[in-house]
Amino acid sequence: MAIDIKKEGLVDGKVEQRMVYESGNEMAAYAAHQINYHVMGYFPISPSTEVAQFLDLMKVNGQHDIVLIPADGEHGSAGICYGASTAGGRVFNATSANGYLYMIEQMPVQSGTRFPMVMNLVCRSVSGPLDIHGDHSDLYFALNTGWPILMCRDPQAVYDMNIMAIKLAEDKDVRLPVIVASDGYFTSHQKRRVETFAHRKDVHDFIGEQPPVGYPHTLDRDNPITVGPYMNEPDYINNCYQQSVAMYNAEEVYDRIRKEYFELTGRDYPILDLYRMEDAEVAVFLMNSSSEIIKDVVDQLRAKGIKAGSIAPNIIRPFPAKQIAEALKNVKAVTVGDRADSYGAHGGNMVLEIKAALFTYGNKDTMVISRIYGLGGKDFYAEDGHNMFQFAIDAVKAGKVEVPFDYYGHTPGDPTKAPKRVLNPMKYESLNTGLIKATKDEGTGKVNVKMPPLRALTGKPKRLAPGHGACPGCGIFSGLELFFKGIEGDIVALFHTGCAMVVTTGYPYSAHKATYIHNLFQNGAATLSGVVEMFWERKRRGELDHLNLKDDFTFVMITGDGGMDIGMGPSIGAALRNHKMIILEYDNEGYMNTGAQQSYSTPIGHRTSTSNVGKSKGGKRFQHKDTAQIMAATHIPYVFTGSESFPQDLVKKAAKAQWYAQHEGMVYGKILIACPLNWLSEDQDGSNIVGEAVNSCFFPLYEVENGITTLTYNPEDKNKKVPLSDWLKMMGKTRHMLKPEYSEELHAFEQEVERRWNMLKAKHESPYL
């Protein structure tokens, strides 16, 4: 329950305020809904995903008018935001880590053409290897993109900085997009007491009218503009100079805005947060969440008679060089903690810029110690703060810095604790049973498979060990293992980021018994195609003869959790090149590895954490993507759908897939798998649910072999077709669709399922469709 803090006398300020108890992500969303942005383009990635989720919840309850646009990936979300900003409205986004790197191509485009917006960068480790916890390795990539960057030490700062950011971005002397940076899983998820504007009108009065008078945009028919023209020298350098001037203007404008904000709210964010620096002899420079912990350490050292102080910036672009030099002019030694490394530069970005600032302003006396700390979300405690100060104290005592640059918090490798193989490699003989025979009929052009009874394949070893961390009832591994029953011999598997990857590869262990590769959603197909072509070329050159391979590898890419959204482009590229490989999609109808957000594979009307159900919206608003038909349109040799509820059908298709992938080229397969946690169903019901999905004709079983479509199971012929509503009532995520108020979504879904089913039947009946 919110508290009226003005009436309670808890803060000095000119506006009425309320107190809430929320996380940084919630406060970013709360500020955005008060600003009431026009558009947010977004794509889920931990730990920033919640920002869009909270906004979607508020949207269905009618709390704001923001148009939330789910993109096909972060690159797409950045494009949505850029396009929206050129059209003159207020634009918002949030991302993290590799998601930010994926959109980074767009960042200089937006700042270079001077269109404002606000993006929350919820800082997280950049892979590889994959780590989803908080450090500043993504933030440091943002330093050269031309966006002013505001820093947030706690959820209160996230709220306040978001409101100040849009005012800064739109200022006539700045006109640049602005990043608001907070620490992932520290600030983003930890709840704190936060003071907020009580009334949206007071927020709007502070940030001002939008768009600013005279600001150009693409929707003014009387004043058409050209956005992002091709420029030659010297126009380009002049454009960059003007952008540089705007960036440095941002420092003065920010300082003015924060003073105005202080008068309104009683909360101040000076360019530098200086704590007990007035007579400090030793200091520590840290950013964001760690900078609050270090203040306790300063007090403890002061109690011992040590003149300690701390520095934390509230803005790092433009970099406050002059202010930092002034703050350190009487300091004998400072330890600079960077939560990311600039590999090979003898320190992280902050220490390098601080050294440059000291040199620029004539300070040759303050000793600077660089330490890289907190990578991968490693916690920072008061004890660590004492150690950071000790580096500076030791330098003062010795009169020099013994170790100018090092990591802090890492541990040396112990040879006795080196990872040991837990699972022995599977023997080829156990994988190649000889029971499955796939041969091509030259007359029909189709591959025929001789299948033994499934019980004959039960002795075939599982390719994934059971010691993974999947949720109870997860259909991924039962579906994958059933598919692998039809694959003979050795495989090389690549897994996209997703549930199947995360739960099987917790270092130092792995559930994979065969060679395994990981790459990110957007580039798995391209990566595996490189592996495939290297295999065939090295084999041609005779470089693999010493391995005594008994057969060619079968190369399989496993994708899911929306991987065929963000990874669609490279997958189509691999298909058009027709590499000898299999792409197998497990479709759980959402981005389940980041918390069940809507995917393009989510059907219309289905509930997810970014397609909520409320008075103004009944689940996802648009129809699901038919990836099997999209891939069939690339004219690869073989496309199929499968389900664990029809095991003989799936194993047979796996055998055909292997034959095509070893002889002719690309194969694409799609299996529907249950996700009880996010489908809101019982753990034991998964096989029945995906079975009814087939019988309702939502997920038909068919194959496209050299362009010819064949239904491999027709529930109408078996008198087993069930109404779509029978399938929907089996899952908590869809039961709302059976209520009268959501009849429109149900009707649209039923019509689309029937349309696609009739199209498939027509293709089955004619080889020319």
TrEMBL record:
Record-annotated Thiamine pyrophosphate enzyme TPP-binding domain positions: 551-666
Region annotated Disordered, chain positions: 599-620
Molecular-function GO term, any one: oxidoreductase activity
Keywords annotated in UniProt: 4Fe-4S, Electron transport, Iron, Iron-sulfur, Metal-binding, Oxidoreductase, Pyruvate, Transport
One Pfam family this sequence matches: TPP_enzyme_C
This protein's record includes keyword Cytoplasm: no
Single GO BP term: response to oxidative stress
SUPFAM superfamilies the record matches: Thiamin diphosphate-binding fold (THDP-binding) (SSF52518), TK C-terminal domain-like (SSF52922)
InterPro entries tied to this protein: PFOR_II, Pyruvate:ferred/Flavod_OxRd, Pyrv_Fd/Flavodoxin_OxRdtase_N, THDP-binding, TPP_enzyme_TPP-bd, Transketo_C/PFOR_II
Biased composition (Polar residues): 599-614
Domain named Pyruvate:ferredoxin oxidoreductase core: residues: 280-384
Keyword Metal-binding annotated: yes
Domain (Pyruvate flavodoxin/ferredoxin oxidoreductase pyrimidine binding): residue spans on this chain: 31-258
Family: Belongs to the pyruvate:ferredoxin/flavodoxin oxidoreductase family.
Stated name of the protein: Pyruvate synthase
